[in-house]
């Protein structure tokens, strides 16, 4: 039998198993797993000394998004090229409903941004900003089209924030249509008061972004979001959880039987409040919401990842240049007022390697690494087992990772269209060597060799 591709001699890692195996790939899917397949003219890749992992799934990205008085630096072309070079083969980006408009119009805009411009497979969550009773049925329609998740905000008053009644209505509706709410949990009203007070006192530097968004503003909103989901009797997913105290709320909710899930992001595991105190406005590079927390908090999150109090690590990739360029202002917008610094940081390319480094330092097992970067995101967001594992019938989205080769992260070499890297100079143990998207070679020996048109929209399953 001849296959399109055979990958031999690698160590296959899934969320549940680690074994030496050869993979046979046909028509973009894993056709068979075994040993010593006859090549019979198939292309053969020798993965000796390499791990073969399921392609990463990043369920939280913002590409080509207007936000904070500008637009994110990465569009689908640059963002997904960076993603695949970093071992991520599927993303879920956020489409935005404009206030007063229907959900469909917002979704169509995002289809237009991504179609024919993505190097990885992609789907969307729908950001809901305006949900009167008459729009609830629009949610059902989107679920039917495979856009099964809806982000609502308890922060950013006047921009994205929804009140509790709206959130509760949306949650109840997901109970009927099989969707799920993804919640940005920070108490936006309280934060706004703290921001105005700080500015009135002449406190304008980047560090005040963090000092006006305390842990308790996140923990309180998380507790409220979980209680609303509990009252509605539906699952809920907390996005970009940063604070150990917020995680404790998720843990407690799970212990009392709420179907509560949460993601954290590498920035909350590797960076800290202290980064805001860098001189020359450098702290602006780390302005994101929720903010980085004081050193020590990250240990609580690592513990949460080990114990499954946190289920996913996504990136919240939302890149803005430090010095804006190409008609897109950057972090300098907030030079004299921290509240005007566009919120967000780049990370779509670095997630997999930063977390693999935690395998090397024994914070994670290889199987847990796969679970939090690929399998759990696939299961929670309706992609499993097409994505998220290595099994016959699954898409051949594969990462060949060299655990011996070190990689130094730098803006000089990354593929993201942004003029800084939050992890500049950090050396991690491991290198993304080859990457395949549905059997198509996208990255070879660390170099992008694919097309930025290979990615397709993925219609996700509902619960
Ligand atoms: O600072 C952030 N997180 N920017 C992106 C928007 C969001 O809230 O996810
Ligand atoms: Zn958010
Ligand atoms: Zn986000």
Walkthrough of the structure:
With 463 residues, this protein is α/β, with parallel strands linked by helices. The protein has a domain at 56-367: Metal-dependent hydrolases (TIM Barrel, Alpha-Beta Barrel). It contains twelve helices and 19 strands. Strands 1, 2, 3, 4, 5, 16, 17, 18 and 19 form a nine-stranded mixed beta sheet that branches. An eight-stranded parallel beta sheet has the order 6-9-10-11-12-13-14-15. It has a two-stranded antiparallel ribbon with strand order 7-8. Strand 9 (88-96), helix 2 (103-114) and strand 10 form a beta-alpha-beta unit. Helix 3 (136-144) packs across helix 4 (164-177), helix 4 crosses helix 7 and helix 7 (215-232) packs parallel to helix 8 (244-255). It is globular and about 70 Å long. The relative contact order is 0.18. The structure holds N-(aminocarbonyl)-beta-alanine and zinc ion (2 copies). N-(aminocarbonyl)-beta-alanine (URP) is lined by residues 62, 184, 240, 288-289, 316, 318, 343-344.
The CATH topology annotation of the domain at 56-367 reads as: TIM Barrel
Mean pLDDT: 98
- Our count of helices gives 12
| Structural class by helix and strand composition | alpha/beta
Bound small-molecule species: N-(aminocarbonyl)-beta-alanine, zinc ion
> Roughly what fraction of the amino acids lie in strands?
15-25%
Q: For the terminal residues, how far apart are their CA atoms?
A: 38 Å
Instruction: Please mark out the parts with pLDDT under 50 across 5 or more consecutive residues, or reply none.
Output: none
**CATH homologous superfamily of the domain at 56-367?**
Metal-dependent hydrolases
Q: State the major sheet.
A: 9 strands, mixed
- Report the C-alpha radius of gyration, rounded: 21 Å
CATH C-level label of the domain at 56-367: Alpha Beta
Reported CATH architecture of the domain at 56-367: Alpha-Beta Barrel
Helix coverage percent: 25-40%
């Amino acid at each position: 039998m001849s296959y399109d591709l055979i990958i031999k001699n690698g160590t296959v890692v899934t969320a549940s198993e680690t074994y030496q195996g050869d993979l046979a790939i046909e028509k973009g899917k894993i056709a068979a797993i075994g040993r010593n397949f006859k090549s019979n003219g198939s292309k053969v890749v020798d993965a000796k000394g390499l791990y073969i992992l399921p392609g990463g799934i990043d369920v939280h990205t913002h590409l080509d998004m207007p936000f904070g008085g500008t637009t994110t630096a990465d569009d689908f072309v640059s963002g997904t090229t960076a993603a695949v070079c970093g071992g991520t083969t599927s993303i879920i980006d956020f489409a935005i409903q404009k206030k007063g408009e229907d959900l469909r119009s917002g979704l169509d805009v995002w289809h237009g941004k991504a179609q024919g411009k993505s190097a990885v497979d992609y789907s969307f969550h729908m950001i809901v900003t305006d949900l009167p009773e008459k729009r609830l049925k629009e949610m059902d329609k989107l679920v039917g089209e495979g856009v099964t998740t809806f982000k609502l905000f308890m922060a950013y008053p006047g921009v994205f924030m929804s009140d509790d009644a709206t959130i509760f209505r949306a949650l109840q509706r997901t109970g009927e249509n099989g969707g799920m709410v993804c919640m940005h949990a920070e108490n936006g009203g309280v934060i706004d008061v703290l921001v105005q007070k700080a500015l009135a006192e002449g406190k304008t530097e980047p560090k005040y972004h963090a000092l006006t968004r305390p842990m308790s503003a996140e923990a309180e909103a998380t507790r409220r979001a979980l209680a609303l989901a509990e009252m509605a009797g539906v699952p809920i997913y907390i996005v970009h959880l940063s604070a150990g105290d917020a995680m404790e709320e998720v843990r407690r909710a799970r212990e009392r039987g709420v179907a509560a899930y949460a993601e954290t992001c590498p920035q909350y595991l590797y960076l800290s409040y202290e980064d805001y105190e860098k001189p020359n406005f450098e702290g602006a590079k780390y302005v994101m919401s929720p903010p980085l927390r004081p050193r020590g908090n990250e240990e609580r999150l690592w513990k949460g990842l080990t114990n499954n109090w946190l289920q996913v690590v996504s990136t919240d990739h939302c890149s803005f240049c430090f010095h804006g360029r190409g008609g897109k202002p950057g972090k300098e917008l907030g030079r004299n007022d921290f509240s005007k610094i566009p919120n967000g940081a780049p990370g779509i390319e670095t997630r997999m390697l930063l977390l693999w480094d935690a395998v090397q330092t024994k914070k994670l097992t290889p199987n847990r690494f796969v679970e939090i970067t690929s399998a759990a995101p696939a299961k929670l967001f309706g992609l499993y087992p097409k994505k998220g594992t290595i099994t016959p019938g699954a898409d051949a989205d594969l990462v060949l990772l060299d655990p011996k080769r070190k990689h130094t992260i730098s803006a000089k070499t990354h593929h993201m269209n942004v003029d800084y890297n939050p992890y500049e100079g950090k050396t991690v143990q491991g290198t993304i060597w080859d990457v395949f998207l549905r059997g198509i070679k996208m990255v070879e020996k660390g170099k992008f060799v694919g097309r930025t048109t290979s990615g397709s929209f993925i219609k996700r399953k509902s619960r």
